[in-house]
Amino acid sequence: MSYSHLSIIERGQLEMLYKLGWSARAIALHLGRHHATISREIKRGQASNGYEALSSELAYQCRRKANASRGKYTQEMANAIQEKLCHTWSPEQIAEKRRTEGKPFVCFKTIYRWIYAGLLVAGDVQVLRHKGKRRKPVETRGRFMVGTPISQRPKDVRKRTTFGHWELDTVVSSRGKSKACAATFIERKSRMYIALKIPDRTAHSMEIACGVIASQYPNAAFQSATVDRGKEFACFNDVENLLGIKVYFADPYSSWQRGSNET
Fold it and tell me: Most buried residue, 19, 127, 130, 131, by most Cβ within 10 Å?
């Protein structure tokens, strides 16, 4: 039997049911989980005002990162590679030399990744000579294939005749190097506006934000979401499956198709 960790949606439901006085066994039965899993989650996520879904999810992500493997990276290997880099060796030369000498092999692409991640020479790409100096900014948020286009969105959503259809976006601070970011939600008919602070513009952070906001309202309050083609919405499949809603993507360079969120 396969096991999956609790999602932010399940944690949001757990928070509401726990505040309503449900027992761990009753919550477990409702969520289709083992009661021991729910009991451990409640103990981990205890706060001054009871269990909190958002803080529990963030703590879970920190634990996951702490347990992440660095692969072949060791401090001994890093020192050896760094010495060569400081003597103007290229990653390709270093990788080939280690292979011919029978030392633990590491691909030259891996050496580049370690440099850009700051694990070697403190991330100083000047040691890479021309290749490092000419390196263009790297898009770190990945690529994704968009889902259902806005042309397939029902007409009653466009006419704002029914409640429960939202426009989603992210807002990033323009103050110097600040990385402050917020996920914004606006309901098309009522114009109700909600902003939730998130740590970054990744798809994972947006997925958590959607789960937290949806957990505060009945299921009927979320029927669809209209978004732009920003890479923070690469999580649209998970959002559709977990929340049972439809996500529509606006056309490129067509901010007017999401007028409520752009005003």
Answer: 127
